[in-house]
Amino acid sequence: QGQLVESGGGLVQAGGSLRLSCAASGRTFSSYTMGWIRQAPGKEREFVASISWSGDSTYYADSVKGRFTISRDNAKNTVSLQMNSLKPEDTAVYYCNAALTVQAMWNGQGDYWGKGTLVTVSS
């Protein structure tokens, strides 16, 4: 009853850009807050960005603010993360996430998780 699949990860040089996509299936996620969580090697899981069901509200971690942009297309049941000016510190596995509230997502209590896509930023 619901599945998230990420794509778009890969290797990029510092300063470059990548666009991650998350395809949802099994149900509609229009009523969910959607977002991205990442985990770098040896570090704790970190909230990256979220977007409300209507798209009216977005939140970004301070570390990515101004560089990353989250968007969603409810008609297509997809969520994207445009990542610009990438830094080596952005290297991590990025997970698509869906939660009934943004608070739940911040607390790591999302209802649906993707399997992740690896982003590697070289120096």
Total DSSP helices: 1
Whole-angstrom Rg: 13 Å
Percent helix, as a range, is under 10%
**Which spans of ≥5 residues are poorly predicted at pLDDT below 50?**
none
Structural class: mainly beta
Shape: globular
Proportion of residues in extended strands = over 45%
Q: Average pLDDT, to the nearest integer?
A: 95
Q: Could you tell me how far the N terminus lies from the C terminus, measured between alpha carbons in angstroms?
A: 41 Å
Number of strands: 11
Order of secondary-structure elements: EEEEEEEEEHEE
Largest sheet: 7 strands, mixed
Q: Quick summary of this structure?
A:
The chain is built from 1 helix and 11 strands; from the N terminus they run βββββββββαββ.
Secondary-structure map with pairings?
Elements (H helix, E strand, L loop, with lengths): L2 E5 L2 E4 L4 E8 L7 E7 L6 E6 L6 E3 L7 E6 L4 E6 L8 E8 L2 H5 L5 E2 L3 E6 L1
Parallel strand pairs: 2-11
Antiparallel strand pairs: 1-3, 3-8, 4-5, 4-9, 5-6, 7-8, 9-10, 9-11
